[in-house]
Amino acid sequence: MTGHHTLRQTEDAIGERLGGLNVDFEAMWAVSNIYRASSAIRNHLEQTVLRDTGLTWTGFVVMWVVWLWGESETRHVAAEAGISKSTLTGVLKTLESYRHIRRFPHPTDRRRVMLELTASGERLMRSLFPDFNRQEAFVVKELDSEQRRGLADSLRKVVQHLETIER
């Protein structure tokens, strides 16, 4: 249970509230369960893997993006992390204070800012990610391999669909 009410109680209340409306309940259940699952997973990972690191979820995602792609421009990191550039600025102040990330001017356009992980940030990600992945495995423990692949494929289709209309 991620909130005050159980999943079943919430679904029953929604059914009662919206029963007379012409809505696509299958779509609503799918999207609301994606939201609930992502919130529950985020909370779980914050309370387990990230709890003793000083990292917020957003800080971890920013570090993940820079770890994955290497040296990156701030606007691209913000877009990949799904946050605004102003939010990124605040996150970077914290990550810089921990000496996990470094800002530096773009080599050809000094108005633009680049990011890279420091040696400390690199070490943190290399040590943290195996624990993170163990918790990912825990989260989907009740799904067999075929269900995991099916879930990943279904969610990938949702993301790809939205990416095609947002471009």
From TrEMBL:
PROSITE patterns: HTH_MARR_2 (PS50995). SMART domains: HTH_MARR. Residues 27-160 form the HTH marR-type domain. Pfam families: MarR (PF01047). This is MarR family winged helix-turn-helix transcriptional regulator.
